[in-house]
């Protein structure tokens, strides 16, 4: 899996955000969305102005509270950060 596939574009992040609100997003999409906001400075700044994305992240976290899911998210994040920094 390449860095580009893990790190979705900002446009896709906002699309996945809409999917989360309609409960159409897959677990992997939610993980990637969370990852995106962690790694993407502009989206993080954007969430301070427009709360849509942050609301969406909250929702995706609420849907994703079981320990197995958190584990997957953490591993994916660790991997993505390593790719991002190398
Ligand atoms: Zn972004």
Automatic annotation (TrEMBL):
Superkingdom of origin organism: Bacteria
Entry protein name: Glycine dehydrogenase
